[in-house]
Amino acid sequence: MTPLSDHKQREAYLYVAPAALMVGVFLILPMLYTTVLAFTDWNGMTAPRFIGLANFFKLVADTNFTRPFVNTLKWMVLGVVLPVGLGFFFAYAISGLKGAKLMQICIYIPATISASAAGIVFGFVLRDQGALNILLDAIGLGALKVNWLYVQPYNTYAMIGAYTWQATGINVMIFLVGLQNLPKEPVEAATLDGAGGFVLATRIIIPMLMPYVVIASLLAVINSFKVFDTIWVMTGGGPARMSETLAVTMYKEGFANFKMGYASAVAVVISALSLVFSYLYLRNMLARESQV
């Protein structure tokens, strides 16, 4: 292959330039501006006043930050384990079955619904006089009734359940693509040796699917840090801000309390946590993959 001429290189840059410009204007510049605002006291109307690390020191002692921080960690763990785990389970269970196409459609349909719509549906089911409590009464299990959306930690787990219902379909599709692209020889050899079911899945299938596991898990980690609409529609972060995550805290502090500098500091923490966890996860998973 011969190197590109200067003319061809300039032409290639011209094709890339519009996308690079949009990324710079709508992603990089806002990130830099938000980072600068995190070191200021600003109400969104008057001129920002530089206060150094005061916003970050305030975060450490603020219960309106520590509680959402813990909730965000719950979302990060369960928002990865449940959608990704169930996504693999359903993909593995229906792969190769008759009627698999219909089952794929049924599992994927929730992913086509907006998060707000899903939150409204689950809010109707889980409210105090909602469908779930009515059903528990009808089958004689009224003692198990809970005000699911206003009792901690049930409200957080209920919202994670709504998120899982919606996110599982995408992971099913990711793993189905991976299963279709797996080499048949190792699977057939393991089957002939007597491996099957759980052993086949954990010892043979999952190690070969590791690139797809990395993709699905990394997307789930990132989404768990920025989830907002499901929480906002179902509980609004209540009661008494008990079910907030950092994304909801950022919105409330910035657009309800007009503490734009403080909200920017929360946004910086969200971005930093997302980058750190993504980096650590990728490094760990890629190291495992290289040993397979």
Provide structural commentary.
- The chain has 292 residues and is mostly helical.
- The protein has a two-stranded antiparallel sheet.
Compact overview of the structure:
The protein is mainly alpha-helical.
Question: What is the H/E string?
Answer: HEEHHHHHHHHHHHH
Content-based structural category: mainly alpha
Tell me the radius of gyration: 23 Å
> Low-confidence runs (pLDDT<50, min 5 residues)?
none
Question: What proportion of the residues form beta strands (DSSP E)?
Answer: under 5%
Classify the helix fraction into a percent range: over 70%
The average pLDDT is: 87
Tags for this model:
single chain; 292 residues; mainly alpha; two-stranded antiparallel sheet; 2 strands; 74% helix
Could you give the topology of this structure?
Blueprint: H1 6-37, E1 40-41, E2 49-50, H2 54-61, H3 63-94, H4 100-108, H5 115-126, H6 131-138, H7 154-180, H8 184-192, H9 197-208, H10 210-226, H11 229-234, H12 246-256, H13 260-291
Antiparallel strand pairs: 1-2
Helix pairs in contact: 1-13, 3-7, 3-10, 5-7, 7-10, 10-13, 12-13
